[in-house]
């Protein structure tokens, strides 16, 4: 789905979202309230320019519109892999974006992520995954690392990873697998305006991804291990 169609379905009451060099920004209306919108389109990689543009938009919202909800529209092939960006410290720019989104959350802004097309690696981690809750459309493509690349890095045969992906969502791409792991709150299949309204009305700032992953059978050990560590540090009652 292209961003024009998406915006029309999310904001039937109107919006002023514009695109400049694959960066989306503007405002939409949900239940009579304005919602700040930032994001990317056309599978654009996140380089220093877009990372700064998104961070600037978040900070402007925090300064000018206290507690206004923020919707992050995600469509990216991940971090831009260029020598220039690496030499300029792209990791620091992306960390800055993540910190700005965290600041917005701490200042009382509900932050919702929506993967409407493609979400890969660091471009997804510092946007949709750092929101209060992240949602996805059914046809979205989500993965942190492709299986061929994972095979090269881990030295595990790709055929083995393909077989593991059939039963283990940690190895498998796609919104359903990320839903099973708790990374995706819900998959929006229709009535996008109603889904967004409900998401904004039920924002929970606490991180429940481990809990959801355990309940959905996608991450069986993250929550028990975290609880064991917590008890260990708490000491005897």
* CATH architecture grouping of the domain at 3-137 and 188-205: Alpha-Beta Complex
CATH superfamily of the domain at 3-137 and 188-205: 2-enoyl-CoA Hydratase, Chain A, domain 1
- The coarse silhouette is globular
Task: Count all strands and give the number.
Answer: 7
Mean pLDDT: 90
> Which CATH C-level class of the domain at 3-137 and 188-205 is it?
Alpha Beta
Helix/strand class: alpha/beta
The profile of the biggest β sheet is:
7 strands, mixed
Please work out how many helical segments DSSP would assign: 11
Task: Give the topology string: H per helix, E per strand.
Answer: HEEEHEHHEHEEHHHHHH
Which stretches of 5+ consecutive residues score pLDDT under 50? none
Question: Cα-atom Rg, whole angstroms?
Answer: 18 Å
At CATH level 3, the topology of the domain at 3-137 and 188-205 is: 2-enoyl-CoA Hydratase, Chain A, domain 1
**Strand fraction:** 15-25%
